[in-house]
Amino acid sequence: MTNKKLRFYTYIGAVFMAAYTSLPGYINSSFLTTFIPEDYIGWLYALASIVTVALMVITPKLINRWGNRQVLLWLTVLSLVSIVPLAGPIFSYTPNIYLTLTAFALYVILGYLTRYTLDVYLENISDDKGTGLIRGIYMTFYNLAWLVSPFAAAYLVTTSSYNLVYAVAGVILIPLLLITIFKLKETGCDHCISLKSSVWLSLKNIWKRRIPEADNIRRILIIDFLLNLFYALMVVYMPLYLHNHIGLSWGEIGLAFTVMLVPFVLFELPLGKVADKWLGEKEILISGIIIITISTAACAYLIAPDWILWAGLLFVTRTGASTIEIMKETYLFKKISGQDTGVVALSRINVPLSYLVGPVFVSLILMYCDFRYIFLGLSLTMLVGLKYAWELVDTK
């Protein structure tokens, strides 16, 4: 099977993986408030993130030993198992709080790890010349699932319950399992045992400038972390803010979030092409950071319970986020090869790490300020990314 066909099946698999993650994505925090107080939600994410970071460190070794496809297969099976307790009442099962919270943590952890293995697999079957286009297509497929998920989740919650959302997410993941078994194959680099695949050694080499482009990789990883911190705080706290503090219904939130996610589908693929053919990533990346900084700050000052206004403002925040996302993905994967699983792991560790830092960030803000100032603090943090984007050496 050609790499082109393998990439196609990887794109399709990414859609189902994204749907599994995104369908409950914006109702997770509200679901958890039926078991634990609102203030504890961030700490549950933090605990899951600690475990994820630890597992991310050893995953490249598992990939080197067993092959990426085999690891992806087992992660998908475990993900299906983890979703069952969350959908318990759908199957006439009375949820136990400890089992439910454990299952939720596993659901989060396995989602991170599965996406990482898909990233490594795609990198193994890609070439640097078309990285912007390949990552653009991949992210567009991935974000299509995120686009429809908020509205679908809101509909399922209002017509049934939170548990139905998780049940549907589990069913959606089954096609990824089938694609992995019947359509993907082990690639030539799956068993490439390289010192670069060690997460700790990759971090050490980047920090001490022992590899080419170490400074630029370090800068793009910092920008990557800032973007993931933005996602973490928005995913956990924006639904709570709009529902509990602004007073929007779940139906209105679903509509607003659907509009909000349109930029990821509209902009990432064309921007990837532009970065490949004309501008490079630096200028576009800087523009995205400016947009996300200003629009996120505005979230602290919009208090009207009007879903259309919120949809418009959130659309602008994600215009900035989608611009940063595709540029940092394109830049990073142009700088590494399929053997650099440790560097890819460092990038994907940024996701759980952001959920680890997020609760501390929010706790410090809420000690002195109102809930809405979470977004002002986040805006100022995103501004830090300008320094690192400005220092990047462009690929063009």
Structure commentary:
With 396 residues, the protein is an all-alpha fold. The chain has one domain (3-391): MFS general substrate transporter like domains (Growth Hormone, Chain: A). It is 77% helix and 0% strand. The chain contains 17 helices and no strands. It has helices spanning 3-22, 28-32, 41-66, 68-83, 97-124, 131-159, 162-182, 199-207, 214-246, 250-260, 262-266, 268-277, 282-298, 307-335, 341-366, 373-383, 385-391. Helix 9 (214-246) packs across helix 15. The chain is globular. Residues 189-196 have low confidence and may be disordered.
Quick structural overview:
The chain is built from 17 helices and no strands. It has 396 residues and is an all-alpha fold.
Largest beta sheet, briefly?
none
The chain-level mean pLDDT equals 85
The level 1 CATH classification is Mainly Alpha
* The CATH topology: Growth Hormone, Chain: A
Rg on CA atoms, Å: 20 Å
Order of helices and strands: HHHHHHHHHHHHHHHHH
Count of DSSP-assigned helices: 17
- CATH-level-2 architecture: Up-down Bundle
CATH superfamily: MFS general substrate transporter like domains
Strand content: under 5%
Give the beta-strand count. 0
Distance between the ends: 33 Å
How much helix is in the residues?
Answer: over 70%
Q: Which stretches are poorly predicted, pLDDT < 50 over at least 5 residues?
A: 189-196
Topology of this structure?
Layout: H1 3-22, H2 28-32, H3 41-66, H4 68-83, H5 97-124, H6 131-159, H7 162-182, H8 199-207, H9 214-246, H10 250-260, H11 262-266, H12 268-277, H13 282-298, H14 307-335, H15 341-366, H16 373-383, H17 385-391
Helix pairs in contact: 1-5, 1-6, 1-7, 3-4, 3-5, 3-15, 4-5, 4-7, 5-15, 6-10, 6-12, 6-14, 8-15, 9-14, 9-15, 9-16, 9-17, 10-14, 12-14, 13-14, 13-16, 13-17
